[in-house]
Amino acid sequence: MTHTLIYPHTTVHNAAGHLEIGGCDVVDLAREFGTPLFIYDEQTLRDQCRAYRATFGKLTDLYEIVYASKAFSCRAMAELVAQEGLSLDVATGGELAAARAAGFPARRIYFHGNNKSVAEIELGLDCGIGHFVVDSFEEIDRLEAAAATRGVRQEVLVRVTPGVRPHTHDFVQTGQQDSKFGFGLSDGLAAEAVSRLRDAPHLGLVGIHAHIGSQIFELDSYRREVEVLFVALDEWRRDFGFECCIFNIGGGLGIRYTEADMPSSIAEFAHVSVTAVRAGVERHGMVMPKLFVEPGRSIAGKAAVTAYTVGTVKVIPGVRTYVAVDGGMSDNLRPMLYDSRYEAMLANKAEAPATDVVTIAGKHCESGDVLVRDVYVAPPQPGDILVTPATGAYGYAMANNYNAQPRPAVVMVAGGRARLIIERETWDDVLRLQRPLA
Ligand SMILES: Cc1ncc(COP(=O)(O)O)c(C=O)c1O
Questions:
Q1: Which of residues 249, 268, 295 is at a domain's end?
Q2: Which of 245, 278, 295 marks a domain boundary?
Q3: Cβ-proximal residues to 55 (8 Å cutoff; 6+ apart), any chain
Q4: For the chain: N or C, fewer Cβ within 10 A?
């Protein structure tokens, strides 16, 4: 039996009745690398990168796929993304450092962030990144000053908030007017930013960027976003003589976390966005810009599962059964932040019928530390290896040391081989930066 809907593409049940990913038995991986363990399937990551390039490439030559590294950022991931010919978006100096450590081509890096520090701006300039996505008036001044000091001219995009609200969780909506990101269109701040950028001698404004939110299922929001942006571009061409070469509509395509989720496909996303941009070009009589998209979740999300060891099984008669695992909100914050729903299964009992309804709890000192509520699994016992699928995006990326819990290890599996790409933290690692009072 295979689980391709929410599990990595290479997932099967093997002869031992265990879950197998990338030719590796998940129970063996848990034994070898310990738990909690993030297991990334290299094939699924590459398939997703290729699906983006193939589907957009079928519709237009004028496109670029920029992987949003915030979904899962590390050296190995940046290397893989470079090999697949995608560009990279970074949101902090730390994500930029990971890209640099991987030798990621600097020209293909896009630097986001609503509050870039001077040190981050200087790092970006000094390593020659392709574009800054300018987010505030302060950044325009700081970037202009730093570029002038270096005698360089830096290409930039301007980040605008188009006032489009997709149907998704409030905390992952970013394109509405009341947002900490970017310059608003309706309040005139975006036009003011374009004007200032056009006057900045060391900055070259080459395009616009907007991102309306994340885990978006209905694609009409993208069509509305593109329409709104074209109206603005028309005005800015008239008022400032600005011609847009790069038209970046952000990321946000949703994925399936449970069998019941019905996200749109990459092909549908490509069709809607390319068609909308063509329509905008025709309506406003513009030159076709290069369309950029910035997927994170839809590349990394389905590629990984998290494996945990079951520690306790607490049956409250007539109420519920809590199955506690050795991780929780320190390796997956999404259920607590967004009420996100996950599935679960026991990797060592992959063939056993899922007859028991249980709630998967973490090990943290917090009642809200619940990973999955009311999910069917095979009868659980301490020592079982419990897996939650679709944890490849914003899982490890948001991992933290709550309760001084060391962050998990991450392996990449392919062809029966597992490579450790991020080591497990130890208690000593957690203590390393602490100093005594005396
Ligand atoms: C500017 C920007 N681009 C791209 C993304 C990636 O979004 P997703 O992972 O939902 O595709 C995000 C995520 O929040 C973002 O803020």
A1: 295
A2: 295
A3: 266, 267, 269, 270
A4: C
